Each structure stands twice: as structure tokens, then as C-alpha cells.
Amino acid sequence: RCVCSPAWFFWGFCTSATCVVSFIMITGRCDDQWCHTCAEQLENLRFVQHAQDAPLVSHYNYIVVGGGTSGCPLAATLSEHSRVLLLERGGLPYRNMSNQEHFTDALADTSLASPAQRFVSTDGVVNARARVLGGGSCLNAGFYTRASNEYVRTAGWDAGLVNSSYRWVERALVFRPDVPPWQAALRDALLEAGVTPDNGFTFDHVTGTKIGGTIFDNSGQRHTAADFLRHARPRGLTVVLYATVSRILFRSQEGVPYPVAYGVVFADPLGVQHRVYLRDGGKNEVILSAGTLGSPQLLMLSGVGPQAHLEAHGIQVLVDQPMVGQGVADNPMNSVFIPSPVPVGLSLVQVVGITKSGSFIEGVSGSEFGIPVSDGARRLASFGLFSPQTGQLGTLPPGQRTPEALQRAAEAMRRLDRRAFRGGFILEKILGPVSTGHIELRSTDPRANPAVTFNYFQEAEDLERCVRGIQTIERVIQSRAFSNFTYANTTVESIFTDSANFPVNLLPRHVNDSRSPEQYCRETVMTIWHYHGGCHVGAVVDDNYRVFGVRGLRVIDSSTFRYSPGTNPQATVMMLGRYMGIKIQAERWRK
């Protein structure tokens, strides 16, 4: 018997040097079958180590900061011909995270070791950022769909290389879902509601209703961006976990008019500082793939950002770059819970209706959302997306929604008949969005969340798209195709009224007899974790994702997007990692 976490053995990441550390950091013991898996996979995955085992000084061709949805495919690709270091501030995806039945577990975990670091935007919307190898692909609902052809053209990407990069991603971890009755009814209801044509199963972003791909296989197991590391050249890649990067190192170089990035500093969990330097050579680079919050935050901590803001935090200004942290957006999402008179199987997003009015309609189902998955579950289910509370907290002002109030509500929910949770959510997310906000530092601590403002529905166009999406959902609920999953004596108005009382955010409610669709959009706004921006192409980085005003530094992740690609961005973020990895390799060997 070994003393490692099952997750470490499943991934094949345990070695004699990390056994004790892994046992401390991730609880649990492996049984014989996990040990057997470890033995089979250990040989090719020795490149993963804990930050405490990392050398104090090391040298690489590429330093990739952020082992998430873009960082993993990027690092795997670059490792084919170079020495690459991938630094991830979190750990490995643990076993429960890998099954769709445990979808809400990580998001409900607010501990310091949680793979989902919770934050609340200044708008009052609860959100989360990934803190785990594989990034958001370890936490999301798994839906896979490409960006539109128009999006690719607008981005100026090479369409042929984009397609081949998508296919590389799809071969590694994308599946065709088995569509259960509830999702099939949603598909037929969308068609009946006028979201046509029926596009069948496709990865393409096309107007109408379709079944998309998923990163959950047919047994319900999640596959994540971390899977791409299996395609890395083992001698070309080192992955360091629990490594929190605090700053990028810059120096002056003769003949170069800009500061040149030459390394990074990261801390392990004990606070020991490690320095990683680029090897000699003009084509070696530091690449930020730390996400929409992490990449602009790290730029600012390193002295690249708005001068007045950096000086207010005592940070020496290297480059006055006022656009760092600007243009951040989150696609607002609104949902409605539809109680079902019949049992409903668990399903995450599989069907999407792409409307002509700029809203996307999706759905999730199953009574598992909002109640403990097992009798031994200690964490409370998330009081946000996909948690069908019955309104116990909706009457409380936001300031009174304390942990104690949440505990009391959760206990009351546990005493309810499980049939009260039977049903599913239909949700709408808008295209774009047009409304944008910004990211600012709260402190110089790289572990702390920055302050984030999204300005949901600040622009009238976004609100109009939401209203049209809500109207589409109303037609879906009233359709014949969906009638088996709605109570005959329940009105659409009552369904929306009940959902409006769910404590999904910290915004005040305006109690009245009837709510307009506009009011519903504003008061029940949530995140679907598709936030982006802060390092826009053309403002902070160039078309090749090089940071303006410095050398040897790129940003390759969702922070470079002006708009969210497609209905769900993860496919395009993964593709971008592969796409840019290939392009950077080509540049390296070009004379």
C-alpha cells in the first residue's frame, strides 16, 4: 500500500520524492488499483514536481506561467523541440473533480486549498477563478464548441492552422455526448420556439439548435487541459505545482530600447523564493497564461501597467501601460429553474440554441445540484449557479446573507423532500458582451484576488439581448416538446418568480407583484465563468501576443479576447495554446 493521493496515482505524477508531500497536500490513500495505474504511467510523467522540490535556480528556453486551459496545450507543444517550464499555482485535479456528479463540489469549496478561488466582483456577483492544473477545464460544465468563422477572421488568425489546432484538441479530449431525455426535450423545444435550423451534432458555431461536444466521456469522467501534457516530450517539459509567481524579471540590454524579460520569481508553499531564468538566446521567452485575472495582475505586479495605479501600491513603474487591466468583460448569464413532475437524469450542457438576436440558450438537469452528493459530504452546495434553492435567502438583504444564514438555509433544504429539487435549469448567456469593466490591484500579494468590475448590462444592447433570451426561454417552457418536464398547473410567471428569489448574487431585490424581463435580467445576473479581457490584442499585446513596450514576454490566454468566442470559450482557449505553440516554434527555427 502506498501513501499517496489517488489523484496523484491516477495521473501517474507520484514519485518517491513527492510521496510525502502529496500525502500532506492532498488527503487520501491509494488502493491497489490506483498503485497499478501509477506504475503504468510513472515513466512518462516524471516531469511533474511539487514547488518545494524545485531547485532554487533553474534555466529554460520558455517559462509558461499558468497551467490552465491555454497554458497546458502551449507548454506541451513547445516542449517538442525546447526546454519548457510550466508553473502552476494550484495542484492536481483530485478524484471527485473528475466526475460530472461532483460538478458543484469544487465551486462550493471556499477553503484556501480549493481548486476554485472564489471572488466577488464589485458588481456583487459571486465568481471563481481556477487554481488547479488544467485550469477552468477542471471546473466548468464541459461543453465544447468552436468559435465562429467570423470570429476567426476578425482575430486575424490563420484559418488552416486554427482548424488543425482545433482537431488536435478534439482528438485528445472531446467526446460526443449521449443525449438524455431532458436534453432531447430542450433541443426539440428550442426548435419549436423558433431557434432553427436543427444543426444536429457539430462543433461549429452556426445559428440554430445543435448538440455540441463535451469533455466528459460516456462514463461521466472529466478530461481536462492537463491531459495535453501526456503529449509532451518528457525531457522537454518540467511542471511545477503550488508555485505562485510574484513577478517577472526585467533587465536592460545593449542595443534594445525596451526592458527585456529574463525570468520570473516564484514562491513555494513554505514561502521559499525560487528564481527561474531564460537561457541565453534572443528567442527565449516568458509567456503568461495565467488567465483573465492572473495575467494583467502579474503584469502590474511586475511594473507594467497604469502608472498612477502602480505608484499607489508602491510598485516601481517599468512601463506606463494604461490599458493593462482594462476592457475586462463577463458574459452575463440568467437562468430559471423548472421543477419537473417526473424524475430527471443528471446532465450538464449538451444542447445550445444560437439565436439570431444575440443570445445563447443552454440547460443542465438533475436533482444532484444543490444538495450533498453523498451522506458524508461536508461542504455545502454552491449558492449560485445550478443550485435550486427554494427562496429561503431571497428575502434577506445581501448584507444579511452570512455564512450562518447560508448554513441555516442549507439545513432547511436538507429536510425538504428530494422531489423539491427535481428538474433542471434553462439558462441564457448573451453574445459579446458590449459592456466592459476593469481589474485593479487590491494589494501586492500575488495570491490575493484583484478587484474586478464587469459593469453588467451597462450598455443597452446587452440588456436587450438578455430580454430576448428570456423571451425565448418562456417559449421553450410553454412548448409541447418540453411539456413532459413541466407541471401542467404551473405558469411561466410563477416559475420565473420563484427563480427570482434564489440568492444567486449579492444584489438587492425589488419586491413587486410582477417583474419585467429587464428587471429579471438585472436582478438575477450570474456568471457562467466566461470572463475575458484585460490584455487586449492591439492595446496590450500585438497580433503575435507580444507585450508592447518590453521584449521577451507574451500573453496567451483569454485575457487577450475582446469578446468571448462562440457560445462557450474553452475550445478556443485550448486551440489558442496549441496554435501559438506551433507559431512560436516556427519563429524559433526561422532564419
TrEMBL record:
It comes from Aegilops tauschii subsp. strangulata (Goatgrass). The chain crosses the membrane at residues 7-26. FAD binds at residues 69-70, 132, 245, 529-530, 569-570. Keywords: Disulfide bond, FAD, Flavoprotein, Membrane, Signal, Transmembrane, Transmembrane helix. The keyword Acyltransferase does not apply. GO terms for molecular function: flavin adenine dinucleotide binding; oxidoreductase activity, acting on CH-OH group of donors. Residues 291-305 form the Glucose-methanol-choline oxidoreductase N-terminal domain. Disulfide bonds join 466-521. Its cofactor is FAD. Pfam families: GMC_oxred_C (PF05199), GMC_oxred_N (PF00732). InterPro entries: FAD/NAD-bd_sf, GMC_Oxidoreductase-Related, GMC_OxRdtase, GMC_OxRdtase_N, GMC_OxRtase_C. It comes from the Eukaryota. This is Glucose-methanol-choline oxidoreductase N-terminal domain-containing protein.
